[in-house]
Amino acid sequence: MGDARAPRRPLGLRLWLSGGWLTLLVLAAILAPWISPQDPLAQDLFAGRLPPFWQAGAEPGYWLGTDSLGRDVLTRITYGAQVALVVALVAGTATCLVGATLGLIAGYYRGWVDLVVSRLIEIWMAFPPVLFAILLIAVLGPGLWSIVIAIVVIDWTRFARVVRAEAMSQSAMDYVASAQVAGRGRMGIMLAEILPNVMATIVTMLTLEMGIAVIIEAILSFVNLSISTDFPTWGGMISEGRLSVHQAWWVLVFPLIALFLTVLSFSQLGEGLKDRFDPVLR
Predict the structure, then answer these.
(1) Per CATH, which fold does 13-31+65-277 belong to?
(2) Which of these, 9, 120, 228, 276, could form a disulfide with 142 (CB 3.0-4.6 Å)?
(3) What pLDDT shows up at residue 215?
(4) Residue 258: predicted pLDDT
């Protein structure tokens, strides 16, 4: 009994740590107008490139220092979390719904439906994803919803391929044959029998996709193809910080840390949820 439970402890720890960071990030994004120490757009050239609070020359109220325009780094990271989380939740969920639905239908019904979806996946994956995203943003114009649409259009194939393979595997199981003998309809079998058994995989991929969406938004922000206003984004902060990394390293490092921890937390959260709720593992 003890040996069987031992491997689950580090997974539980990772689940709590990743969930804790994401919860903290969500609360910070929601409460940003009330808890942020400064205005994210306020500039003060006399307070430019102030160091973090533990270094000499720091000033009270600027916990993580300021950038070259005197804007508070902590405040801008907090407001940048709003953009990152909106893109992660909306784009990740929409991508999951489109890709998982097509993959589930193709994997269970097979035949011409599977043929059409499979060919569509192959055609879509022939395009380099980053270049495809930049092209879509150039056509749609910069903006939050343009990023969401671009992510959905690009990444639905990721869900479709995996869910299709899982649905095919589950369709060959005895419980599906038993449901067919019992006279259940194909739609009922797909939704009541197959879907619950591939849900753990879908949830894992959804959290991974949220992390990928955060990265894509940061990349597009880095090349000035994200939201068109001066609203702070992590990618934009990284782009600005690299220009003054030798004079103000904190402008680059802290947004990078926030980005890294968020993507890592989404990844670890998916793995932890799969191990907790996968019916096969249980």
Answers:
(1) MetI-like fold (1.10.3720)
(2) 228
(3) 92
(4) 95
Angle at 281 between CA 277 and CA 282, to 5 degrees: 65
Whole-angstrom Cα distance, residue 102 to residue 117?
Answer: 7
CA atoms within 13 A on the CB side of 175: 10
Global pTM reads: 0.86
In 3D, which of 55, 59, 54, 21 has the Cα closest to residue 38? 59
Which residues on neighbouring strands pair with residue 66, listed in sequence order? Answer: 72
Phi, psi values for residue 269, rounded to 5°: -65, -40
Q: What is the pLDDT of residues 166-204, one digit of tens each?
A: 998 888 887 878 877 877 777 888 888 888 888 888 988
Amino acid (1-letter code) at residue 231: F
72 DSSP β-pair partners: 66
H helix intervals, the chain: 2-5, 8-30, 32-35, 73-109, 111-124, 129-140, 144-171, 174-181, 186-189, 195-222, 234-241, 250-277
3-state secondary structure of 110: coil
Q: Can you list the residues of the chain whose pLDDT is less than 70?
A: 1-11, 228-229, 275-282
Secondary structure of residue 5 in the 3-state scheme: helix
**Predicted local confidence at residue 111, as pLDDT:** 85
CA dihedral sign, ordered 91, 93, 96, 101: negative
- Tokens 């597009």 belong to 220
Q: What is the structure's pLDDT at 227?
A: 78
